[in-house]
Specification:
This protein is an alpha/beta fold and 292 residues long. The chain has a single domain (28-289), classed as Carbamate kinase. The chain is 41% helix and 22% strand. The protein contains 10 helices and 14 strands. It has helices spanning 8-27, 39-42, 44-59, 71-80, 96-120, 161-165, 188-198, 229-238, 245-257, 273-279; strands at 31-36, 63-68, 87-88, 91-92, 125-129, 136-140, 149-155, 169-173, 175-177, 183-186, 203-208, 226-228, 262-267, 286-289. It has an 8-stranded mixed sheet with strand order 5-8-2-1-11-13-14-12, sandwiched between helices. The protein has a 4-stranded mixed sheet with strand order 6-7-10-9. The protein has a two-stranded antiparallel sheet with strand order 3-4. Helix 4 (71-80) packs across helix 5, helix 7 packs parallel to helix 9 and helix 8 (229-238) packs antiparallel against helix 9. It is globular, with a radius of gyration of 19 Å.
């Protein structure tokens, strides 16, 4: 008889695969929109883990769609080019010179780095911006007080349908144009949430640098694992959800209100956080649902 101690690691791997089976069956053929950013984008080992997770999701029949940001690299290039970086109300003030850098970094560099990373693992990824195929129609954010900062006016996901049907992973940068052709910089969380609704996605997943929604922002052990839509709204009103977590939670709320089944805020600093959230019973972050 094989030594159970010697085979402990193999037994654990098989047990994990067995636990994942019902989730693989449930989500095969379903769409999951993932907002990719933060530490998961900045560190090589975490990037590799995310790419492997995405490749595996596609391999078992899930249809992942990636929306990415790239703020830290934008800051690096602005510094190199001696263009001042200014933030107001948590948003990057984007003049014409800054917008040129945003497009160069998000569309020309970060997007292709993600595509190449996925392709090297045998996945088939295609890079797009919000302007491609009129995927995202932008409108100025607020009254244009932040320059070329945009919001989503309309989504047109038709360009993604043939890609998803053929097993490609769309990788989308959050740059889009207004009807007059002016490029705008849109918050990637916002684009991901609106796209999830437009695609009738099963899930919206936001990779962040926090464990999820916390009852006490200073206590990582106070993680709230599951919230109803009404409870999420209440936590914002009570100030439990505040600061940078507010727009992420509002993004989840809006996606759910438009028909997305579940939204997740998870810790991208944990290797393979995507698989842990999608394919295990316990999950890893906060799941917000419309009901139950």
């Amino acid at each position: 008889m094989p030594d159970p101690i010697q085979n402990g690691d193999d037994t654990m791997r098989v047990s994990v695969l067995s636990e994942a089976l019902p989730y693989i069956q449930r989500f095969s053929g379903r769409r999951i929109v993932i907002k990719y950013g933060g530490a998961a984008m900045a560190h090589a080992a975490l990037r590799e883990a995310v790419f492997r997770d995405l490749a595996l999701l596609a391999c078992v029949g899930v249809q992942p769609v990636v929306v990415h940001g790239g703020g830290p690299e934008i800051n690096q290039w602005l510094k190199k080019l001696e263009i001042p970086a200014e933030f107001r109300d948590g948003l990057r003030v984007t003049d014409a010179d800054t917008m040129d850098v945003v497009e160069m970094v998000l569309v020309g560099r970060v997007n292709k780095q993600i595509v190449n990373g996925l392709n090297q693992l045998g996945a088939c990824a295609v890079g797009l911006s919000g302007s491609d195929g009129c995927l995202v129609e932008a409108r100025p954010w607020g009254e244009g007080s932040h320059g070329l900062v945009g919001d989503v006016a309309r989504m047109n996901p038709d360009v993604l349908e043939p890609l998803l049907a053929r097993g490609y992973i769309p990788v989308i940068s959050s740059v889009a144009a207004t009807p007059d052709g002016t490029a705008h910089n849109i918050n990637a969380d916002t684009v991901a949430g609106e796209l999830a609704a437009a695609l009738d996605a099963e899930k919206l997943i936001l990779l962040t640098d926090t464990p999820g929604i916390l009852k006490d922002k200073d206590d990582p052990d106070s993680l709230i694992r599951k919230l109803r839509l009404s409870e999420a709204r209440q936590l914002i009103q009570e100030g439990v959800v505040a600061g940078g977590m507010t727009p992420k939670t509002e993004c989840c709320i809006r996606a759910l209100a438009q028909g997305v089944a579940a939204a997740h805020i998870i810790d991208g600093r944990v290797p393979h956080a995507l698989l842990l959230e999608v394919f295990t019973d316990a999950g890893i972050g906060t799941m917000v649902v419309g009901r139950s």
